[in-house]
Design brief:
Elements lengths: L4 E4 L9 H16 L3 E6 L9 H13 L9 E2 L4 H13 L3 E4 L3 H11 L4 E2 L2 E2 L10 H9 L5 E4 L1 H8 L3 E4 L3 E4 L9 E3 L7 H11 L4 E5 L3 H14 L5 E5 L19 H6 L4 H9 L9 H9 L9
Parallel strand pairs: 1-2, 2-3, 11-12
Antiparallel strand pairs: 4-7, 5-6, 7-10, 8-9
Helix pairs in contact: 1-11, 6-8, 7-8
C-alpha cells in the first residue's frame, strides 16, 4: 500500500499571496483527506533572487493558515550533488548537450530563420549548439566558455518511446517530447534548472501526487520524459485552476494587496482567507468543488497509488 504524499514548493523570493495559498491548500487537502503526508520544499536554487528572511515568512504564513507540513522542509540548495548526478547520467547517455549561445545569438538565429518556433511557454530554442561536433564542444568547455546544458528532445524521445501521464482533472495525457523543445537542464549561472531539480526532488521526497497550477501543465511533458530517462517513479498529477486578479492575470509576488501579510495586517483571519479563496468571483477562478472531487478520487489503492 502506497502512502499518499504531496508537496508545496514555493520560491523564497517574496511573500506568499493568495495564489500560493490556494496551491498549498490543494496539496494539503489531497494529502490529508487520503490520510497521507504534506511536505514543504523551498525552490531556492536561483540564489541571486532568494532572500533568507523569506523562508521564515513562508513558513510563518503556512502555520498561521494551519497548513502544517510533515518532515523537515527541503531546500534545493542542499541537493546540488543529486542534480549533478542526474545531469551526468543524461550526459553519459548522450541525451544532454552544452549550449554556448548568448541571448543575442539566439535572437539572431530566429531572425535568420524568418519565423521563430513557438511553444506554449514562448519561443523555442532553435538548436544552434545541438549539431556542434564533440571536439568543438570539448575545446569550448576546456577554454572556460560559459555554457548551459540542454536536453536533446529528439534523442530523449527515441530513448523513451511513447509516454503519457495521468492528471486527476484532465485524465490521461500523451506526452509530446518536443512541446518545449530542448529545455535547459542546468543554467550557466547555477548548477541546475527547474525542470531537472523538481523531478529529482519529487522522487527523493517520494511524492505520489504532484499538485500545481495549470500553467505548468506543459512542463509536465518534459518532467515525464526526464522521469523515464532517469528511472524515477511516475506520480499522479493535478493541475488546478489559477487564482487570477481583476484583469484575469495570474497573481504574482508584485500583487502586494493580495499578499497574506497584507491581508493579516488588514485584519483578515485565517478563516477569512480560506473563505475568500472559495468565493465564486470571476477574479478568483479556484474551482473548490473540483478540488474536493479530485480529493475523493484518491485512496491508497486508487489512481497513482
Amino acid at each position: 500500500m502506497t502512502r499518499v504524499r504531496t508537496r508545496f514548493a514555493p520560491s523564497p523570493t517574496g511573500r506568499l499571496h493568495l495564489g500560493h495559498v490556494f496551491a498549498a491548500q490543494v496539496a494539503h487537502q489531497l494529502a490529508r483527506e487520503a490520510g497521507g503526508e504534506f511536505l514543504l520544499s523551498h525552490e531556492d536554487i536561483d540564489a541571486a533572487r532568494v532572500r533568507e528572511e523569506y523562508y521564515g515568512y513562508i513558513e510563518e504564513d503556512l502555520r498561521w493558515l494551519s497548513l502544517a507540513w510533515d518532515d523537515e522542509p527541503l531546500r534545493q540548495t542542499s541537493r546540488t550533488d543529486a542534480y549533478d548526478k542526474a545531469l551526468e547520467t543524461l550526459r553519459h547517455r548522450g541525451l544532454a548537450y552544452p549550449c554556448f549561445c548568448t541571448r543575442k545569438e539566439i535572437r539572431d538565429e530566429w531572425a535568420r530563420m524568418g519565423a521563430a518556433p513557438q511553444g506554449p511557454e514562448g519561443t523555442l530554442y532553435p538548436g544552434i549548439c545541438r549539431a556542434l561536433p564533440a571536439a568543438e564542444r570539448e575545446v569550448k568547455i576546456r577554454s572556460g566558455q560559459p555554457h548551459a546544458w540542454r536536453l536533446d528532445a529528439g534523442l530523449a524521445a527515441a530513448a523513451t518511446g511513447t509516454l503519457s501521464f495521468h492528471d486527476l482533472r484532465y485524465g490521461m495525457i500523451p506526452v509530446d517530447p518536443h512541446l518545449l523543445g530542448d529545455v535547459v537542464l542546468a543554467r550557466k549561472d547555477i548548477g541546475s534548472a527547474y525542470h531537472l531539480a523538481v523531478v529529482v526532488d519529487d522522487a527523493f521526497q517520494e511524492i505520489t501526487h504532484v499538485t500545481r497550477g495549470e500553467d505548468l501543465l506543459s512542463s509536465t511533458h518534459v518532467h515525464r520524459l526526464l522521469q523515464s530517462l532517469l528511472g524515477l517513479p511516475e506520480p499522479t498529477y493535478l493541475h488546478h485552476r489559477l487564482i487570477v486578479d481583476e484583469s484575469g492575470k495570474r497573481l504574482a509576488k508584485r500583487n502586494d494587496a493580495l499578499a497574506i501579510a497584507t491581508l493579516r495586517d488588514r485584519g483578515f483571519s485565517p478563516a477569512d482567507v480560506v473563505a475568500l479563496l472559495a468565493e465564486p468571483q470571476p477574479h478568483f477562478a479556484c474551482e473548490a468543488d473540483s478540488i474536493r472531487s479530485a480529493a475523493g478520487k484518491i485512496t491508497p489503492d486508487g489512481p497513482g497509488a
